[in-house]
Amino acid sequence: MKKVGMLFASILLLAGCNAPWASDSSGETGTENKDDQVTIEVMMFEGGFGSEWVKSSADAYMEQNENVSVEVIASPDIHQQLQTRFLSNDVPDLMVPGPSFDIMGVINDGKILGLDDYLEEDSYSGEEKWLDTFEQGQFNLKRDGKTLGIPTVFSSGYVWWYNEALFEENGWETPETWQDLYVLKDQAAEKEIPLFAVPGMHPGYYFNGIFIPLVERIGGKQAVLDAFNLKEGAWTSEAFAEAARESQKMVEEGLFLEGTFGLSHTEAQTLFFQNQALFATAGTWLEGEMSDIIPEDFKLRAMNQPIWEGSDAEFLAPVSTGWGGAWYVTEDSENKEETVQFLKFLSSSEEVKKMVESRGLASVVKNTEDAISSDALKSALTVMQEAEGSYAPTAINDSYPEMTNNMINIYQSLMLNEITPEEFTQRAEEFAAQVRDDSSIQKMEFSW
Amino acid sequence: MKRKGDRLALVFFLSPALFLYGLFVLYPSIQALWMSMYQWRGLGEKTWIGFGNYERMMSDAIFINAMKITGKYILFQVPLVLIISIGLALTIANLLKSRWLNTYRATVFFPYILPGVAIAMLWATIFNPVSGMLNGLLNAIGLEQYTTEWLGRTETAFGSVVFVNVWSMVGFYTVLILAAILNIPEELTEAAEIDGAGKWQKSFYIILPLLKDVLQVVIVFTLINTLKIFEMPQLLTSGGPNRSTEPISLYIYEQAFQNFNFGYASALGVIFLILIFIASMLTLRLTRGEKV
After folding, report:
1. Cβ of A105 and B260 within 8 Å?
2. Which of A263, B101, B176, B258 has the greatest CB tally within 10 Å of its CB?
3. Start-end of H helices in A190-335
4. A202 with B238: Cβ contact below 8 A
5. In a domain, B121, yes or no
6. Which chain A residues have a beta carbon less than 8 Å from that of B261?
């Protein structure tokens, strides 16, 4: 009996040692008690931007903080691992989920930590507020006014890329107005070069790179916002109707490479780099993605979409929403403080500069521009700087993926001349109404 | 007692397979049926909606389109695979029975051993409208009016996907039928020859009727494989342009992994399962007829 009593007491004692309140009673948290070993688990999407820079920063951080161990798991299919981890309530501390993960689902479910209080704190260097270390143009990963994600890599929206050397060689000017495109088309036709090589197999590239920017140029920011906020009649508004008519006209007038609607994105981009078309639409990942085949004399530069003559719409620059590419601290992380501290380190200009230098990326962290060596990337940043503001043509992708897929599909039909512009806007409005009327879909309020 | 021992042995030897079948087939199927009653994004809370997903299906134009497209695949693919496989097998058996049989058999079978991704890449390159071999060939022989964006136009994308599927499937079925032909007792064909039957008469009146069993197997397999078609439309066209090549399986994938509607995707999966079950039952029933 005595033995049983002692065993029971021992179990209670051991349980007490492991209980969460045990450290509270001593007044010490994991951060304060330097003897406690803390492991921060990082799961990140590994795409064109790589993951070496994070691993290198993790090593540097561990050297500075001996009680912290940072484990980085990176994979192009990280979304599959993350989904099972979230389902089993075994979440990592920090993550970059990538484009295929349902980030909105976990946000709706309250699984992501709000970071506003931390952003008001000192940055890692302690010289300024953490929030002030970021360029604000792309710092908009907010839901219900709460900042949830921290972007570090700058990613423009779908801009237009061109070969500056080819333009210089032929004395061509980049188009300032949409109507200039047709002048350029005639000039380039003399060299038998069409204007656009787009991937017909992935129509999202020109839905986001031509159609939505065209709507913005015609109807201004408000026309896009009304549509994205599912305002009744927004998808049939004059701006959308005109943009649909113009899209079809661009095909009819031969602005697109013959055969382009049967190409994949790498095929279309390859043809662009072979100077078989003047423009390709893509984000800032283009240079990294196609680096193996870009000719040495190819001066890759980005330009903003031209303005629409006669419209007083704002001249905005497209930015990527970046939800999938941002950093998130999970609400159920057992090491929130330590994780945020590591994230501050990771997003400090010193660490980000290393990333910019090693990967040839641009960042939304201030004072890192000097480290950019790529002229293509610099030109994409210039697009941002020269614009009157920014907007996100891809903003609905994360919030209403089904609606976006449907819109893109019918846009492809429009481009293939299978439906009229009126039918396109009508069907788009119907898809928007389906989401608007479905109370089970959580609505997002977009504002730029 | 002996019978009881046999039964125990039966259970003992079957149990590992039954366990795996239960774990990887039955359990997920039942789970999918259960999940189809919920609205669920694949993460977080599930909301019970009863038959809501099934009601939605009835008015979902894209689902109805996917059903039609799947039907179209069956309509074109099953007869094409059957006819071409029989034709090839008969040709090889008739014309090359002696010397080149193995060479032709290996050549015909070759596409079947290629991975689906390799086949898709190969044909995507051939179909490439700008630098592809097909348009190049048409241009070279003066048929430039027939050049087109094979995988990018609604008029040609479906036919192109069916062609690639048939190309990749016929090898296996040809070899299957050929094996059956070579197993037909020679006395039968010799007797026909003595009676004055030519090669094609032998094929139609002697060989084909004797292939009934193997042809039934070919039909069952082709039908089920066509119902489950996913790989080629996904790799060649992603279901486009404007869903003109999107079968049900691809739509299920889209709903689950792109639109994050796991509840609805499960309901689609249940209907898909029922369809495959019905197709299997029908064909099994047909194949139960008397043997020749």
Report:
1. yes
2. A263
3. 204-206, 212-228, 238-252, 265-273, 286-289
4. yes
5. yes
6. 402
The string of pLDDT tens digits covering residues B178-204 is 999 888 888 888 888 888 888 778 888
Rg (C-alpha) for chain B, rounded Å, is 24
- Interface probe, candidates A202, A261, A323, A427, chain B, greatest B C-beta count within 10 A: A261
pLDDT at A237 > cutoff 80: yes
Structural domain boundaries, residue B165: 52-287
- The verdict on a CB contact (< 8 Å) between A262 and B151 is yes
What are phi and psi for residue B148, nearest 5 degrees?
-160, 180
A249 and A333, same domain (yes or no): no
pLDDT band at A356 (very low <50, low <70, confident <90, very high): confident
Give the nearest partner residue to B43 out of A109, A261, A402, using CB atoms.
A109
Residue B143: give its domain's CATH number: 1.10.3720.10
**CA-to-CA distance for A347 and A341, rounded, in angstroms?**
10
Nearest-by-CA chain A residue for B238: A201
B104-136 pLDDT tens trace? 888 889 999 999 999 999 999 999 999 899 999
Specify whether A150 is located in the same domain as A251: no
Same domain, A416 and A278: yes
A207 within domain boundaries: yes
Within a domain: residue A411? Answer: yes
**Model confidence, pTM:** 0.83
Split at pLDDT 50, 70, 90, the class of B288 is low
Q: Cβ of A263 under 8 Å from any chain B Cβ?
A: yes
Question: What is the value of ipTM here, to two decimals?
Answer: 0.81
Would you place residue B70 in the very low, low, confident or very high pLDDT band (cuts 50, 70, 90)?
A: very high
Residue A139 above 50 pLDDT?
yes
Asked if A401 has any chain B CB less than 8 Å from its own CB, the reply is yes
Do residues A99 and B258 lie in contact, with contact meaning Cβ atoms separated by under 8 Å? no
Which site among B254, B260, B262, B268 would you substitute to test the A interface, given the most A Cβ atoms closer than 10 Å to its Cβ? B260
Q: What is the mean pLDDT of chain B?
A: 89
Q: Quote the crossing angle between the two packed helices B212-227 and B154-182, to the nearest 10°.
A: 150
Cβ distance B130 to A405 less than 8 Å, yes or no, reads no
Residue of A nearest to B237 (CA): A201
Hey, are the CB atoms on A267 and B130 less than 8 Å from each other? Answer: yes
For residues A230 and A243, state if they share a domain. yes
Domain-located, residue A29: no
Instruction: Indicate the pLDDT class of residue A436, thresholds 50, 70 and 90.
Output: very high
B244 touches chain A (CB under 8 A): no
Range of the domain at A60: 36-155+322-386
Residue A20: inside a domain, yes or no?
Answer: no
Predicted local confidence at residue A447, as pLDDT: 83
pLDDT digits (tens, 9 = 90+) for B203-226: 888 888 999 889 988 988 899 899
**Is the domain of A88 the same as that of A206?**
no
Chosen for mutation from A101, A106, A265, A402 (greatest number of chain B CBs closer than 10 Å) is: A402
Cβ within 8 Å, pair B152-A201: yes
State whether A413 and A270 are in the same domain: yes
Which chain A residues are Cβ-neighbours of B257 within 8 angstroms?
Answer: 100
One domain for residues A119 and A170: no
Q: Name the percent of chain A lying above pLDDT 90.
A: 59
Question: How far does A30 lie from chain B, in Å, by closest CA?
Answer: 29
Digit-coded pLDDT (tens) for A77-109:
999 899 999 988 899 999 999 888 888 889 888
State whether A310 and A215 are in the same domain.
Answer: yes
Q: How many domains does chain B have?
A: 1
Q: Establish if A314 touches chain B: CB-CB under 8 angstroms.
A: no
